[in-house]
Amino acid sequence: MIAGVFALASLGSTLATATSPEAGASWRGTVIVDGMIHEPSGYHPYKTTISLRLRESERVAVASGFRVPLVSDGSVFETVTSVHQTEGPMLCSGTGTETLTGRTVGYLETKAGKTSYHLALPRAFGAFACGRNHTTGADRWVVIGVGDLEAADIETADPLVRALAGGDSMMKGSFQSKKTRGAVRYEYDVSWSLTRDRRPR
Beta 65-85 vs 26-39: how paired, if at all? Predict the structure, then answer.
């Protein structure tokens, strides 16, 4: 059954200046997706550490405000996973690393002088199995901040609207979630901290 998991599992003036495309702002920080899969015969920890590097793209108008897309600019996804028998030995372990460049993974949205953020991170869970860079083919996403529905396989999603902090220069927070698929239980602990660099690139 444990092996089956791998087979199925394969990432307004205050804000006008800060989010304007000519500011050339970028974001740097870390997202950690720490998951655990419990099966009747064992358990399977899966942790992805994402070194996010984002750049702000051209703003686009939306009802009552505007959005600034966030484009991945060389973000690195590093995964550590393993499979264990219940009260028994570890059966195998694995690591994986991949880089994401040029793909939009979220946006800032400014309305009524307040800015929220939404991040949708592909291949953030279940992308690697035991071994070194042994990909599973899965593309299971983790979503931070309530926003547009994503046409993707969402592994877990933040239930809250997230607003920028620290003078609109910080994204920071966490959430926990649980779910079941048949007899299999999943637990997730997601945390993140990113800061904005407004220097032109």
Answer: unpaired
Q: Is residue 201 part of a domain?
A: no
Q: Do residues 144 and 159 lie in contact, with contact meaning Cβ atoms separated by under 8 Å?
A: no
Model pTM score:
0.84
H-assigned helices in 65-164? none
16 sits in the region (left: phi over 0; alpha: psi -120 to 50; else beta) called alpha
Cβ atoms of 141 and 127 within 8 Å: the answer is no
The domain of 32 spans 2-173
- Tally of domains within the chain: 1
Structural domain contains residue 132? yes
First to last CA, the chain: 49
The answer to whether position 198 is within a domain reads: no
Tokens of 182: 């048949």
Task: Compute the distance between CA of residue 186 and CA of residue 156 in angstroms, rounded to an integer.
Answer: 10
Phi and psi dihedrals of 111, rounded to 5?
-145, 135
Query: Taking a C-beta distance cutoff of 8 angstroms, is the pair 136, 6 a contact?
Result: yes
State pLDDT tens for residues 155-199.
999 999 999 999 999 999 999 999 999 999 999 999 999 999 976
Helices (H), 39-128: none
Q: How far apart are CA 156 and CA 178, in angstroms?
A: 8
Mean pLDDT for the chain? Answer: 88
* Predicted pLDDT at 86: 86
